[in-house]
Amino acid sequence: MPELPEVEITTRRLDAALHGVAVETALAPGMNTMKTFDPPLEALEGRAIASVNRIGKMPVLHLAAADGDDGLSLLIHLMSAGRLQLFEKRASPKDRASRLLIRLDSGDELRLREFGTKQRAWAKLLAPGEVAGDEMVATLGPEAWPAPTVERLAEIVDEPRHLHPLLRDQRAIAGIGRSWVDEILWQARLSPFKKGAELDSDEVERLHAGLGVLGEAIDHYEEVVGDRIPDKMPMPLRVHRREGEPCPRCGATIEAVFFSEHQMNYCPAEQTGGRVLKDRRLSRLLK
Ligand SMILES: [Zn+2]
After folding, report:
1. Stretch 45-69: mean pLDDT, rounded?
2. Ligand 1: distance of its center to the CA of 270 in Å?
3. What pLDDT, on the 0 to 100 scale, is given for residue 281?
4. Structure confidence at residue 287 (pLDDT)
5. What is the whole-number distance in angstroms between the Cα of residue 256 and the centre of ligand 1?
6. Tens digits of per-residue pLDDT, 97-126?
7. Nearest Cα to 174, choosing from 155, 213, 207, 147?
8. Are 52 and 75 in contact (CB under 8 A)?
9. Chain-wide mean pLDDT for the chain?
10. In the chain, where do the E strands start and end?
């Protein structure tokens, strides 16, 4: 599940590797991957890659100008199971994970792959000036890293919604997903079920400090991730998916609440006043 730290290290590595490299061919084996049709994907061919960066959890490839235009930008959404990786060899036509294949004159191939059976990852080929206005970009809240100011964060969370979904809402704050939200709330010693509008100023400051785990994760990746992005990122998670294990800070048992597509982990001793929250999966079965 690539979130801000994973996409940040991915785009840093790609930016270093691809700067100035030209596109030979671009193909979209994923039937529904391209969400734009004009210009066509072939418009990438022959262009040099100028830079790679990210907006929230979305990688963006910027390509040099050609034919009198201002260049092109390829905005990519990895959704929950996409990966953007560079390979030395070309993908096998049988590789069912391939969604987008960008063959480079360096001999490498940049692939958008997606694990699992669902095809959800997508890309849009836009004029550089259109990126900021794209609906997925224009609706984003401020970036979670570098963190907004404490004052700005206080405004962002001043909503009658539980912190867990609120912090994962890209329109409120951009870059946080199901893994890092658990880490941020644990770091801040805040309950996932506390409402944003109910935070006092001390709690907002703790939440602000908790966002620091994103920068720490990026620093960790800078140390352990090499030139090529692995399939499985070595995520330095301390509570997410660690139910049953001792809290690394206080030793209490980490608990979980399961939802249909995700799970929430927390330390009951430090985040919920000792209360173990209802397991929604279990309570549904018992109904
Ligand atoms: Zn604890």
Report:
1. 96
2. 5
3. 59
4. 44
5. 13
6. 999 999 999 999 999 999 888 899 999 999
7. 147
8. no
9. 95
10. 23-27, 49-55, 58-63, 72-77, 82-87, 98-104, 109-114, 122-126, 255-258, 263-266
Say how many Å lie between the CA of residue 254 and the centre of ligand 1.
7
Q: Calculate the dihedral angle through the C-alpha atoms of 23, 26, 30, 31, rounding to the nearest 10 degrees.
A: 150
DSSP-derived letter for residue 129 is G
pLDDT at 260: 84
CA–CA separation, 73 and 43 (whole Å):
11
Element containing residue 215 per DSSP (H, E)? helix 212-224
Amino acid identity of 62?
H
57-63: Cβ within 8 A, 24+ apart:
57/2, 57/3, 57/4, 57/7, 57/170, 57/174, 57/175, 57/177, 58/7, 58/136, 58/137, 59/7, 59/10, 59/11, 59/14, 59/84, 60/11, 60/131, 61/14, 61/18, 61/102, 61/110, 62/128, 63/23
Q: What is the pLDDT of residues 143-172, one digit of tens each?
A: 999 999 999 999 999 999 999 999 999 999
Instruction: Kindly state the average pLDDT of the residues 178-200.
Output: 97
Q: Distance from the CA of 243 to the center of ligand 1, in angstroms?
A: 12
246 Cα to the center of ligand 1, angstroms:
8
Residue labelled with tokens 């620091």: 212
Write down the pLDDT at residue 221.
Answer: 98
Ligand 1 centre to CA of 267 (Å) is: 5
